[in-house]
Design goal:
The complex is a heterotrimer of chains A (316), B (294) and C (480). With 316 residues, chain A is mostly helical. Helices cover 74% and strands 1% of the residues of chain A. In chain A, helix 3 packs parallel to helix 8. The two termini of chain A are 42 Å apart. In chain C, the strands form three sheets. In chain C, strands 1, 2, 3, 6, 11 and 12 form a six-stranded mixed sheet that branches. Chains in contact: A-B, A-C, B-C. Chains A and B meet through helix 1, helix 3, helix 4, helix 5 and helix 6 of A and helix 2, helix 4, helix 5, helix 6 and helix 7 of B.
C-alpha cells in the first residue's frame, strides 16, 4: 500500500497544482453561498421548530411540528397561496405578452429598414424596470386613488361612482377581487421591460435574411412570428418566464408598498405574509416555518431548472 | 401576398408596394409608441405632480396638464429631509456592493466558464439552485444572523446582504458572458508566452471583459439603489438610511403625504441615478436591441 | 485545452501579446500576497467604515455599564444648564412624524439649535413614520437598540419589554424635585397614563384627543347626536364632488372605538382583564357603523385601504368632515390654506346617553435606562417642558395639542377649543396593559381586522364580534 499511497499523494498534489487556480477563484462564491444562503436556511428550520417571538425574547420553546400543522390547516395561508399564484402567473403572462410584442416591434426589420426612433422608444420602455419600487408604488397609488387621474378619466367617460382600484373589497371580476387585478396590472407594468430586454437581445441574433426568405416564400406577420421567431426565442423566453415567476412568488417590495396585504387581506401574497408574521407580529418561529415551506415548494422547480440548465449549459 | 410578389425573381426581392408597407409600419410604430406611453405613464405623472402647485392636487380629479409650474420644492426637499445623507448612504452601499459583488462573481464566473475542475458542476448547481430561492425565505434567519453579529444599523449590513444576494445572479451572467464573449485563445497564447495566471486575468481578461463587467455592475447597482424592504429592516437609522427607506419614511402619517409635490420632487431625485446609470451603461454595453447597425 | 505548466523562470518570447505581459510580470507568490493585502485592505476599510459612524451613535447596549439592574430610580439630573453637562454627548431622540414633515423638521431644528446654544449639548431628532413605528419600537425594545429619549406610546408595554435593562427611566424623584415644573399642571388623564404603580415613567408632551372637524361648506353645523349625523350626512351627499359624507382618521380600530363609545360600550372589561366584545351593545354599534357605511356617510375606503388619503380627501372636498379626527388646523395651514376658514371643530356626535364620548391618549417623552447620556437627556426634557413657548411651537409644528395646561393657554387657536372640551370626556385610546400592543399590532391585529370586516365586508356582525372576542381572549391569556 505504500507505493499506492505515495502515488495518491502525488496525484493529489498534481491535482491541486492543476486545479488550484480555478478552485481559488471560485472559493469566494462557494463560501458565500454555503455560509450565507444555505446555513441560514438550516437556521430557519431550527427556528421553525420553536414558537420564538420577538415580543417574548428568550422564551422560545420547542414545539416540534406545530408551526407546520398550523400552516397546513390555516385557511389564511391557503387563501394567500392562491392569491400569490394568481398574481404571479397573471402578471408574468401579461408582462411576457407585452414584452415580446415590444421586442418584436422594435427589432424586426421591415425589408431592411428598422423602425425609426427605436432606441429612444426602447429606452423609455425600460423606465419601469429602473425606477425604484418606492417611487413606482406610490405613484400608482396616486393614479389609482378614488379622486385620482384614472378615476378622472372614468368620470369624464360618464362613470358616476369612483372606482376604488386598490381598496374595493366587494367588486370581483372573474371571481378575483379588484385590488388584486390592480396589483397584477402594476406587476405587468413593472415586468414587461425585463421581457423586452431579454427577448430583444435574443431577437437581434436572428439574421434578417431569415425573415426575408420567409416572406418571399409566403409567410408574413403571424406565421413568420410563430414559425421562425418564436422557436428561436423560446429558450430565452422559457428561462425568463421561469425566473420571473419565481421572483414573484417570493415578491415583496411592490405588493408591500402598494397595498401592504391589501384591504381585508385580498392582495396578500406569500412574501408580504412572511414579512408580516416575522416582523409585524414578530412571530419569528412561525415566520421561519413559512419560509421553509416556501423553500420546499420552490425546490422541485429549482431542481428542474438546475438539471435543465446544466444540460443546456453543458453543450455551451 | 400578391401574385406579382410571389412571381418575382429572388434577386429583385426588394419590391415594395408602398401603401402596404406604410400601413403596417404605421401600425407597428403606433403600437410601439403606445407601449412606451404605458411604460412612462407613472413617470409622467410624477413629473407633473412635482411641478404643479399644491392647490391643483386638492381638487377631485386633477387635470392631466399642470396649470402652473413651481420649482421651489426641488430645493425645499433637500431641507425637508436629509436627502443628501440618504443619497450618500445609498451611494456607499452601491459602491461596496458592486466592487465586492462583481469581483467575486467575475472570478467565480471566469473559473466556472474556463476550467474543468472537480467541483465545477457542484458550484454551478449551487449557484443555479440559489437563483431560485425567493429571498423572502431568508428574511427571518438572515435578520437574526445580522442581529446576533451586531450588524443591524451599521454601514456593513446592507453591502454585506446585497452582495450575498447579487453574487449568484451575477456569477451566472458573467459565466455566460465569458463563454460567449471571447475564446480562450488569447489567454492560452499568453500563458504559452509565460504570463502568470493572475497576469492573464489582470492584463487580458479584465480589460476585454469590461462590457460584461459593466453590465453586471449596472444590474447590481440598480438593485442595490432601489431595494427597499430589507433596507428598512436593517438600516433604518437615520445615519445609515438609504434613499428608498428615506422616501418611504417621508410619506406622511397614514400612508400618504399631504404635500405630494414635495414628495414627488424627492422621488424624482431618487429615481434619477439608476436611470442615468442605465443610460450611461447602455452606451458602454450596447445591449443590442438593434442599437448596433447590421 | 489543458492547463500547461510553464516554468516561471523562462524568458518571455517576443510577440504582441507578450508586450502586455511584460518582463516585469510579478511572480505568483508576490501577486498572491498583493491580492491578500488588497482583500484585507478592502475588508478593513469596510469594517472601519462600519464601526466609525456606528461608534459615534453606537447602541448603548454595547456597554451597558450604566444600566441599573432593576427598574430603580434614575440618577437624578442636575439643573438644565451648568457645567455638569457633557457637551460632547449627543442626545438622540426618536419622534414620530406628525402633520406636515417640513414644519416638524423646522421646529425640531429650532429646538436643537436653542438647546445647543444654552448648554452646548447636541440634540439629534430622528423621525419615524407611523406605518413602521410600532414595528420599529417593538424590535428596538426587544434588542435594546434604543435612542436616549423616545416619543412613547404604549408606555406600560415598554416598561415590561425593557426587562429592567433598557426600559423607561423612573422620573418620579425628578418630578418631586420640581425639575419638570409643577406636575399638576399636566392634564389629569395624562398624568394617570404616565404613572404605573405609583412611579412616573414619562413626561406627557401632547394629547391626541379625537373630535369632530367639519367643513362649513358641507355640514351647516356640527351634528350633536348620531341621528343628526345621519340626516345631515344624507344632505351632504347631495353636494357635488362628495364621495362620502365623512371620513375616519388614523387606524380602523380608532373608528371602531368611537362607534362603540357612541353606544356606551368598549373593548375590554373595566379591569382590562377580559374581552367585552360579547356585549349586546356592540351588536348595535357595529350594525350602526355598517349601516352608515352603506349609506356612504362613513367611508369604507378610509378604513380598509391603508393608503387612503384621509385628510387629503377632506381638503379636496371629496368628504365633508372627519369623524373622530385629531387637530388638523396647523397641517391645513401649511398644505391647504384655502380650506382653513371653512374648518369647524366640535364634539363627537353623542349617542343615546346624550353625552359626547370620545377617546384620546397622551404621548410621553421617556428616557431609556441604557442611555449613556441620562443627565443630558434629563436636562433637555426639563428645559423643553418648562419652556412653554418652545413646547407650544413644537405642538404647533406637529399639529398636536399639549397636555400641559400652561402651554394650552398659549394656544389662541379657536379651532382647538373643541378638543380641550372633548378632553373632559375621554377614554384612553390605548389600554394601559402590555397586551394592548399585540391587540393593536398594525395592521392585522384582531381589532383592526374586526373594524375592516365591519366596514368593508358583508360578513355577519355576530361572527365578526365573536371572532374578535376569541382573538382578544387568546392574547390576554398570553400575558397573565
Amino acid at each position: 500500500m505504500e507505493v499506492g499511497s505515495s502515488l495518491d499523494r502525488s496525484r493529489f498534489r498534481r491535482s491541486i497544482r492543476r486545479h488550484g487556480w480555478p478552485l481559488l477563484l471560485v472559493t469566494p462564491v462557494a463560501v458565500i453561498l454555503l455560509l450565507f444562503m444555505y446555513a441560514p436556511i438550516l437556521d430557519a428550520v431550527r427556528l421553525s421548530l420553536t414558537d420564538a417571538s420577538l415580543l417574548r425574547p428568550g422564551q422560545a420553546q420547542a414545539v416540534g411540528l406545530d408551526n407546520y400543522l398550523k400552516i397546513a390547516t390555516s385557511k389564511e395561508f391557503w387563501g394567500i397561496a392562491g392569491q400569490t399564484i394568481l398574481w404571479s402567473v397573471a402578471s408574468v403572462a401579461g408582462a411576457c405578452v407585452l414584452g415580446v410584442l415590444a421586442a418584436v416591434l422594435l427589432t424586426t426589420h421591415r425589408r431592411g429598414r428598422p423602425l425609426r426612433g427605436r432606441v429612444i422608444i426602447g429606452g423609455l420602455i425600460l423606465a419601469p424596470f429602473v425606477a425604484p419600487p418606492v417611487v413606482s408604488a406610490y405613484t400608482w397609488i396616486y393614479l389609482y386613488s378614488g379622486s385620482g387621474p384614472i378615476n378622472g378619466v372614468l368620470n369624464a367617460l360618464g362613470a358616476t361612482e369612483p372606482v376604488y382600484f386598490l381598496g374595493d373589497t366587494v367588486t370581483k371580476i372573474l371571481g378575483v377581487a379588484l385590488p388584486l387585478w390592480s396589483m397584477i396590472q402594476v406587476g405587468v407594468w413593472h415586468g414587461f421591460p425585463f421581457f423586452f430586454l431579454m427577448v430583444a437581445a435574443a431577437l437581434t441574433s436572428i439574421p434578417v435574411e431569415l425573415h426575408e426568405a420567409a416572406e418571399i416564400d409566403g409567410a408574413t406577420g403571424w406565421r413568420s412570428f410563430r414559425s421562425i421567431t418564436l422557436p428561436l426565442i423560446a429558450p430565452v423566453l422559457e428561462v425568463t418566464i421561469f425566473l420571473e415567476l419565481l421572483f414573484r412568488l417570493g415578491g415583496l417590495d411592490l405588493p408591500f408598498l402598494l397595498t401592504g396585504g391589501g384591504p381585508l387581506g385580498l392582495t396578500n401574497v406569500w412574501g408580504v405574509f412572511i414579512y408580516q408574521v416575522g416582523f409585524a407580529r414578530l412571530e419569528i418561529g412561525y415566520g421561519a416555518a413559512l419560509g421553509v415551506v416556501l423553500f420546499l415548494i420552490c425546490t422541485p422547480f429549482a431542481i428542474w431548472y438546475v438539471r435543465r440548465s446544466r444540460r443546456q449549459l453543458a453543450g455551451f | 401576398m400578391t401574385a406579382s410578389m410571389a412571381a418575382s425573381p429572388v434577386r429583385t426581392g426588394r419590391v415594395r408596394p408602398q401603401r402596404r408597407i406604410s400601413g403596417r409600419r404605421f401600425a407597428a410604430y403606433a403600437a410601439a409608441v403606445l407601449l412606451a406611453c404605458y411604460a412612462m405613464l407613472p413617470l409622467y405623472w410624477m413629473v407633473i405632480t412635482a411641478v404643479r402647485p399644491v392647490s391643483e392636487l386638492l381638487t377631485i380629479y386633477p387635470s392631466w396638464f399642470p396649470g402652473g409650474v413651481q420649482f421651489d420644492r426641488f430645493v425645499k426637499i433637500w431641507q425637508a429631509i436629509p436627502l443628501a445623507t440618504y443619497m450618500l448612504n445609498s451611494a456607499i452601499v452601491v459602491l461596496f456592493t458592486v466592487l465586492i459583488g462583481v469581483t467575486v462573481a467575475a472570478l467565480g464566473g471566469y473559473a466556472l466558464s474556463r476550467f474543468e475542475f472537480p467541483g465545477n458542476g457542484a458550484v454551478l448547481a449551487l449557484v443555479l439552485f440559489t437563483q431560485t430561492i425567493p429571498t423572502v425565505v431568508l428574511l427571518v434567519p438572515f435578520y437574526t444572523l445580522l442581529h446576533d453579529a451586531g450588524l443591524i444599523n451599521t454601514r456593513a449590513a446592507l453591502p454585506l446582504s446585497y452582495t450575498i444576494w447579487a453574487v449568484p445572479y451575477a456569477t451566472l451572467i458573467l459565466r455566460g458572458y465569458f463563454k460567449m464573449a471571447f475564446s480562450r485563445d488569447l489567454e492560452d497564447a499568453a500563458r504559452v508566452d509565460g504570463c502568470s495566471r493572475f497576469g492573464v486575468l489582470w492584463r487580458i481578461v479584465f480589460p476585454l471583459s469590461l462590457p460584461g463587467l459593466m453590465s453586471a455592475a449596472m444590474l447590481i447597482a440598480v438593485f442595490a439603489w432601489n431595494e427597499f424592504l430589507w433596507a428598512s429592516l436593517v438600516a433604518s437609522q437615520e445615519q445609515v438610511r438609504t434613499v428608498s427607506v428615506g422616501l418611504n419614511q417621508f410619506v406622511g402619517r397614514f400612508g400618504t403625504n399631504e404635500n405630494l409635490p414635495l414628495w414627488m420632487a424627492g422621488a424624482i431625485f431618487v429615481a434619477l441615478p439608476p436611470i442615468i446609470l442605465y443610460v450611461v451603461a447602455q452606451r458602454f454595453v450596447s445591449v443590442g436591441y438593434g442599437v448596433t447597425e447590421r | 485545452m489543458t492547463d500547461q505548466q510553464q516554468p516561471e523562470a523562462r524568458r518571455p518570447a517576443d510577440g504582441p501579446i507578450v508586450e502586455r505581459a511584460s518582463a516585469a510580470t510579478p511572480s505568483r507568490r508576490q501577486v498572491l500576497k498583493a491580492g491578500v493585502l488588497m482583500g484585507a485592505g478592502a475588508l478593513a476599510t469596510q469594517v472601519i467604515a462600519a464601526c466609525a459612524p456606528a461608534a459615534a451613535s453606537s447602541s448603548p447596549n454595547a456597554a451597558p455599564s450604566s444600566a441599573p439592574a432593576s427598574t430603580g430610580p434614575a440618577p437624578s439630573a442636575s439643573a438644565a444648564s451648568g457645567p455638569s453637562l457633557d457637551p460632547s454627548k449627543a442626545v438622540r431622540i426618536w419622534i414620530q412624524n406628525y402633520g406636515d414633515p417640513q414644519q416638524q423638521a423646522d421646529a425640531l431644528a429650532t429646538i436643537s439649535a436653542a438647546f445647543k446654544e444654552a448648554t452646548g449639548v447636541t440634540v439629534a431628532f430622528e423621525g419615524l413614520d407611523w406605518a413602521t413605528a410600532e414595528q420599529k419600537w417593538d424590535l428596538a425594545m426587544t434588542s435594546g437598540d434604543l435612542p436616549d429619549i423616545g416619543d412613547m406610546f404604549y408606555l406600560p408595554s415598554r416598561i415590561v419589554q425593557g426587562q429592567g435593562k433598557w426600559g423607561p427611566v423612573d422620573l418620579t424623584s425628578n418630578i418631586d424635585a420640581g425639575d419638570f415644573g409643577d406636575w399638576n399642571r399636566i392634564v389629569n388623564a395624562s398624568r394617570d397614563e404616565s404613572t404605573i404603580d405609583g412611579k412616573v415613567y414619562g413626561i406627557p408632551w401632547r394629547i391626541d384627543i379625537r373630535a369632530w372637524t367639519g367643513r362649513s361648506d358641507m355640514f351647516a353645523s356640527v351634528p350633536k347626536t348620531i341621528q343628526d349625523l345621519e340626516s345631515m350626512g344624507l344632505e351632504v351627499l347631495k353636494k357635488s364632488g362628495i364621495q362620502t359624507a365623512t371620513t375616519h382618521f388614523a387606524q380602523p380600530v380608532d373608528a371602531l372605538h368611537q362607534g362603540g363609545l357612541a353606544f356606551g360600550t368598549t373593548f375590554l372589561s373595566p379591569d382590562y382583564k377580559a374581552s367585552n366584545l360579547l356585549d349586546p351593545k356592540w351588536v348595535e354599534a357595529a350594525n350602526w357603523m355598517r349601516d352608515l357605511t352603506t349609506k356612504k356617510i362613513f367611508s369604507a375606503q378610509s378604513e380598509v385601504d391603508q393608503k387612503f388619503n384621509q385628510n387629503g380627501s377632506f381638503y379636496s372636498g371629496t368628504t365633508g368632515a372627519v369623524y373622530g379626527g385629531g387637530t388638523m388646523v396647523n397641517e391645513a395651514k401649511g398644505v391647504a390654506p384655502q380650506v382653513v376658514p371653512l374648518m369647524v371643530s366640535g364634539l363627537q356626535p353623542a349617542g343615546a346617553s346624550g353625552v359626547s364620548w370620545s377617546h384620546g391618549s397622551c404621548a410621553q417623552w421617556s428616557i431609556f435606562q441604557n442611555s449613556p447620556a441620562i443627565p443630558e437627556a434629563t436636562a433637555f426634557l426639563a428645559w423643553l417642558s418648562t419652556d412653554p413657548d418652545m413646547s407650544h411651537a413644537l405642538n404647533q409644528a406637529t399639529s398636536t395639542i399639549s397636555a400641559d395646561t400652561d402651554v394650552q393657554k398659549l394656544d389662541k387657536e379657536p379651532y382647538n377649543a373643541a378638543f380641550y372640551e372633548q378632553a373632559k370626556n375621554i377614554e384612553p385610546t390605548d389600554m394601559p396593559i402590555v397586551a394592548w400592543n399585540e391587540m393593536r399590532v398594525f395592521p392585522d391585529g384582531p381589532l383592526n381586522v374586526m373594524a375592516n370586516r365591519v366596514w368593508g365586508s358583508t360578513d355577519d356582525i355576530a361572527t365578526i364580534l365573536s371572532d374578535g372576542h376569541k382573538a382578544i381572549t387568546d392574547i390576554l391569556a398570553k400575558y397573565p
